[in-house]
Amino acid sequence: MADLSIDFCGVKFKNPFMLSSSPVSNTAEMVGRAFDAGWGGVAFKTISCGKTKIIHPSPRMHGYHYGEKRLIGLQNVEQISDRSLEDNLLDIKYLKKKWPEHVVMASIMGFSGKEWGDLARACTEAGADLLELNFSCPHMTVEGAGAKVGQANELVQKFTEIVKDSTYIPVIAKMTPNITDMTVPALYAKKGGADGIAAINSVKGIVEIGIDDWTPRPNVGGLGTSSGYTGPAVKPIGLRFVSDLARCKELNLPISGIGGIETWIDALEYILVGASTVQVTTGIIHYGYGLVEDLAEGLSDYMDQRGISKVSELVGKALARLREPDSFDLSRQGIAKYDMERCIGCGQCYVVCRDAGGQALEWDEKKRMPVQIEEKCLSCMICSFVCPIEGMITYKEMPKNWKRKDAPSLGRKLKK
Amino acid sequence: MSEDMEKGWDISQAMIESNRCLLCYDPPCSKGCPAGTEPAIFIRKLRMKNITGAIRAIKERNILGGVCGAICPTSLLCEKECVAANFDRPIRIGKIQRALVEHSWKIGFYPLSKYYENKKDNLGKKDKIKVAIVGGGPAGISCAYELAKFGISVTIFEEHEKIGGALRYLIPSHRLSNDFIERETSELASMGIEIKCSKKIKRDDLKSLFEKGYVAVFLAPGLWKGVRLENRAVKGVYSAHDFLYSLKEKPQKMKKIVYGKKVGVIGGGAVALDCAEACLIHGAKDVYLIYRRSFGQMLSEENERICALRKGVHFLMLNQPTGYLLDENGKLAKIKLCRTELGKEDKSGRRAPVEVKGSDWELEVDLAIEAIGSQVDDDVKEIHPDIKFEKNLIVVNKRKETSANSIFAGGDITRGPGLVAEAIRDGKEAARNILEEIKKSECEEKVVLASVSPRRC
User: Which of A346, A359, A371 should we substitute to test contact with B (largest number of B Cβ atoms within 10 Å)?
Assistant: First the structure.
């Protein structure tokens, strides 16, 4: 088994896999079981001072299903921890005492500058290894908190400064994706002294509108809201924001990647675009803590097979090849290549090529097979996305002198 | 084992299965359905969560779509053509079809009733054009429905107390319940189809129908007599028809007759399997399925055969029954059997069974059920002097016309024992040609038949 340990903001992790601050990290009893299952660390469920009473809406979550696939996304309106400050601090103490090798990052949210400072001191005292500042919960029932802070750059800087003044442990700012450019508030956090960035928090969304009661889901006493949307469906958005942060030279801070991670490949993708730890919630909501076994084994085997000895060697490895579209070499063109021996003759490729591609396929009715006209192929590759035979349709680069045939204009006939 | 009809899938299971469908271009499954149910269409609709549309797509094409979903040998029809089988297993089309139809009952969605409403509005000449259907089995029901769609005033004359034909009287409850048939056909009345039960059409009645203003007749009386092994009546020996009919009509009496007994069922088709399973369900001690050919040559679906094996039917293959031995009271005591082996190919393309000399033996049984074919009732043969019969079946042309004027025919009476889906197809085709004939004659009289032009029929 490869060595999966990694340094994040000067703290050593057994592996890069963490529970994110969420329902899955609500109590020490839960986190303890997660540690035993193999998770390297936890962002403990966001703690507040307890002066403002936190009550979770009911019901608090709603699943997004696609076809037979359950839970490709999840919307939740769960608030930060509704437990007392004392209980939470005791739990952090307990975890550090019983699992000293595991990392406990206390996630905190103050409702005033003073509260941020108080929380930072209390959690540091309780033995937390790091602090994560929740600037990003998109559905706080408390006015002016969560993502509202994360969208106000000066507040990000100010609260980070207050926290930094109140602790000696590393401070991570957790960012909201519900903005255009995440590097802006991230730089303000850095100005305030942040040691690292965690991203992304949940994306604001609505997973379902009830068509019988005309009420968005989850239906909270007859009302709905747009709130934190997570799960596999948001991974592309997460990868984009994390890579933005990682490519920002001015920022240059360690990143904890979050957003739709279920498998070791998802985790590796976040690492390749610059994350050095990754955090998981929706995957655990779907499959439980046991998930980590496959995250660790999958990543370890991948590293062994490639002779990579440290996870840190992989961090940001895809960034050099991540560019703006204007850097593409447009002289390189290709087509979809069909391995006809494997074709089972469903004809979905024919339908989509005709209606959404370059009309580059003809249909052999007798053989029930597509026949490709290479020079009309746009290389959009949509045929390969609908093909039920994995790998039957692949991309093939064509020689430089190859030319694609233009789509005919029917209007030209009118002219004649 | 329960005598209740096996439960179907619920709509969510059907939805999940529909996601496996490859949504083929030029879908082969649709071509595999004799009844023209076009599974590719309702599966795509279900996939797109258009559940009501999927139900409509089934019922508009096949009035007995639910029944077909429940009892069709799909592995030999639509599912046999399924492209998904090329890399996995076929889509369970029958299961989806049945689930959708049962779901329509659950949510109270009846897509066909609209035809009657349209008819009332559009057809000023209501009741003008009348067509009679003789026989309320699948062929008759299908024909009646297809005609009613176009505003024809249809009357079904059914000999039995209820419509359904062989579905109701010859398929045991564990495969198809009466309740299921009733729900499935409940829309016929709301489409304005008149159903006259316990009304047997005899020779003279057929003539008088035309006198009463019916412009065409569709004959689909079915085959209600079993082919028999011996001419004499033996106590303890039943034809499959008699057995299954009594089981449905006098279940208590038949259960007593079967309970604790050793039964020999003769035959290798779906009807034989139905009889064998029904006997086990009703407590028979041992059930032997006696077939002169081999397991692989049986015409029933393979999974149905395996199912029967699992349920405990003893398969006695390659054995030809040669007669019965009776006890001193004249009651069946033993079936005389002779072992066979497979010889040369016969007309059916299968190797024919040849009796092995000197291999005679006797199987002790209490009951024997002969499921070896169906034949026409004698009085049906005399239903009309102009109707030609050949090999005891009514002769029809491609248009389903008999040799008598304006009399069409379909179903088993024209083809021999067939599938429900084939009977439905016959009814549809006959209806199409009846409509054509009506349109022709109406045009001559300068009266245009007001079609309610269903959107997708």
Answer: A346
